[in-house]
Amino acid sequence: MLATLCLVAIPANLVLPALVWLFPQLSVALIDSLPPELPSDPAVLNAVPIAGKLGAYAAFALPAAILCFGFWRLAAMFQSFARGDVFSDTPISNLRVFALTLLLHSLLQPIAGAAASVFSTFHLGVGNRALTISVGSSDILALGLGALFLVLSWVLLEAVRIAQENQEFV
């Protein structure tokens, strides 16, 4: 079940932002989840030329792709758990990769938001363009969770190593 949720998160992470940019009038419910540096009024989003929309989406695409890779590895970890493979290198390395992708995503997200703010306001001309950088509580939480999962994967790998060492003595 958890692996399926992770696999569903992959296309959702790529498609939902595109829907906000391409069809802002249809995505009013998603507007509140936009980063604060982007316009939240559907009319303002509609006024952004297609090149600006594509540029803003592309700015968020790299962190989103990194997180999608992390979700794929997290799904693989849950699939290992479902097969009964809990304390081995495979699921633990999948957890480690997920942690690293979460850390990288949380570091790149504010940079992507800044680039998207430039793309979405570039058509306004000199003096009206904006470069805004925002770090929110969700970015800080993702950074903390990524660090926690990274340390947890390190501890689990050490526990597996110690268990294997103890088996060799018996």
Structural class: mainly alpha
Number of domains: 1
- What does the average pLDDT come to? 86
Low-confidence stretches at least 5 residues in length (pLDDT < 50)? none
The rough form would be described as elongated
Number of strands: 0
Question: Keyphrases for this structure?
Answer:
about 170 residues, mainly alpha, about 0% strand, elongated
Characterization of this structure:
- This protein is mainly α.
- It has one domain (2-169).
- 76% of the residues lie in helices and 0% in strands.
- It is built from six helices and no strands.
- It has helices spanning 2-22, 28-31, 42-47, 50-82, 89-121, 137-169.
- Helix 1 (2-22) packs antiparallel against helix 4, helix 4 runs antiparallel to helix 5 (89-121) and helix 5 (89-121) packs antiparallel against helix 6.
Quick description:
The protein is mainly alpha-helical. It is 76% helix and 0% strand. It has one domain (2-169).
Secondary structure blueprint with pairings:
Elements lengths: L1 H21 L5 H4 L10 H6 L2 H33 L6 H33 L15 H33 L1
Helix pairs in contact: 1-4, 4-5, 5-6
